[in-house]
Design a protein that fits this description.
It is a single chain. The protein has 170 residues and is mainly beta. It contains one helix and ten strands; from the N terminus they run αββββββββββ. A hairpin with a 2-residue loop joins β6 and β7.
Amino acid sequence: MKKFCGSITLICFSCIVAWAQPAYDNCSTAFVLNDVADYCSEIAEFTNIGATDSDTPLPSCFPNVNEEDADVWFTFVAEANTVNISVIGETQINGGGSLDNPQFTLYSGICDDLIEEMCSNDSRGDNAISSITNELTSGQTYYIRVDGANARTGSFELCVNNFNQVAAPT
């Protein structure tokens, strides 16, 4: 009986530890998005609950309120020159999770030397954000940092659509 109770305790503790911090909590352990031609995660598939503050300085659009951020990281290799990134948290219609006021940054470079390419935050309180940039280099690695403004945490849906923008007619 003692062995059984000890095993149950160990299993429960392991579950708590596993839940305590997402595996994609740092740039160096970013969740790899393999096919970003038209990627959307499951609703509430990702979370920043239990995420720790990263050593990366706050990006330009994140509120600087002297708080620890609870950011999580994703990475992909660009297949085309344009990307549309959406983070959907707790919305009334088609909710993507429980995260309020999501914000994200797109970086290029390597984890020790990141270059901010695009930054977006939910300044209107819609609990969903989407931004597009057409300045990607095909074959280059990019990182997405997702957080909730003012230390908010929760689950969310992440969508990444990487495509070649059609040239303007001449």
